[in-house]
Amino acid sequence: MMELNFTSQSFDLLDGLADNNEKAWYDEHRKEFDAYLRKPFGHMLELVTDGLAETDVPLIGSAKTMFRQNRDIRFSKDKSPYSTHVSGVLTPTGSKSEKQGLLYVQLDRTGGMIACGFYKLKAGELAPIRDSILEEPDAFAQVLQDLNDAGLSLSDEDTLSAMPRGYEDYDQHDYADYLKLKSFIAQTPLSKSAWLEADMVDRLVQYAKGCASLLEFGRAATEA
Q1: How far is it, in rounded angstroms, from Cα 160 to Cα 171?
Q2: Which domain holds residue 123?
Q3: Strand, coil or helix: what is 21?
Q4: Residue 3 domain-assigned?
């Protein structure tokens, strides 16, 4: 498998951008940023796409599904012009706007993270998943078991403090805490060494496979 061009210089550049988040610095280091960060990241997404093509979770990513380095600061109090991380997604259609289950990858100065699932859904998008949990508890139990078998679990970082509207009667349900979730994602941090020493492509392919039943459950619910 072709090597990715992530090196210690990649992290030096991320450190530099975090400490000098301004146009002059970025313009001076733009070619290096592309060579050691953005181009290898886009290539990595393409290789993961190839690795997932014949699996139960075909997901598509490339340089086109990476997020821009420039931040949209029009409505933000933080006027820093650039994101201090490099990130992108793999989705069923290969579109960044796709929300039907995705794999998100982030590289930052400390290492980064992987996340898989359904992120920050609106109430109307959450309802079908919540209803499926109630209507198909055994299928949802299998999702949880499959995640556990892969060393993963659903994150509880994005959750309501009380039962969502319309689900108040299920506050004693075995899966009440999951009904409160606003995102159904499994996530894990990445160390610097993961980028410098490990095979990130294989790691991401295996991570997506570990999330297969979560993606299938969510898609079946939202597409019904």
Answers
A1: 12
A2: 8-223
A3: coil
A4: no
Report how many domains make up the chain. Answer: 1
Residue 1 lies in a domain: no
Phi, psi of 41 (to 5 degrees): -65, -45
CB neighbour list of residue 49: distance below 8 Å, 6 or more residues apart: 59, 60, 61, 62, 90, 94
Which one has a higher pLDDT value, 97 or 12? 12
Give me the CATH number covering residue 93: 3.30.930
pLDDT > 90 in the chain, percent: 86
Pairwise CA distance, residues 41 & 35, whole Å: 10
d(C-alpha 81, C-alpha 88), whole Å:
18
For the chain, report the end-to-end CA distance as a whole number of angstroms.
Answer: 39
- CA 108/CA 97 separation, integer angstroms: 22
Q: How far is CA 53 from CA 104, 190, 205, 218, in A?
A: 17, 24, 10, 20
> Which is it for the CA torsion 12, 15, 19, 21, positive or negative?
positive
